[in-house]
Amino acid sequence: MTVRGRPLPDGFWTMSTLEVTRSVLGMVLVSDIGGERTAGRIVEAEAYLKDDPASHSSRGITKRNAPMFGPPGLAYVYFTYGNHWCLNFVTAPKGHGEAVLIRALEPLEGLDAMARRRGRAAPRDLLSGPGKICQAMGIDGSLNGHPLALPPLTLLRDRWEPGEIAARPRIGISQSVDKPWRLYPVRSREWVSRR
Question: What pTM was estimated for this model as a whole?
Fold first, then answer.
């Protein structure tokens, strides 16, 4: 299966971070890394805002989080827990430090490459978590600050409609845990990182 999609509409990145979090659900992330094409539909995302104590940007700009401060439409890729990469989309105007963490994808293309990179064969286990996404799609720190409109990491629109959206508390944080800023389509809950 070859995934085809359209570029994002003009003005997409002018929406608020919470609107972008909802709007990326159903979009397709395409990776052309290492000569292998992989793609997945975004089915879970979490918002992190500038005044949010759980956000990397809450204490100001650092060498690690600098791409998070924009401009919007860039990948913010960081290493965590000493063993995996996480992919975020920068969402706010330059200087604001907001992003959307991509938590889970439904695998669409390049499942063999994903399985080899992950050391797992079950489709459900390929992209059901931020670290799994980066490992399966070959995403690492070399893509930190990469524009999402250009290969080798591209975000595309699709005609798929997410339908009803579940809003749940975010996962893996110790502050602002009450914010219902983890979103996923109810119809896609089999693919999310945590149901």
Answer: 0.95
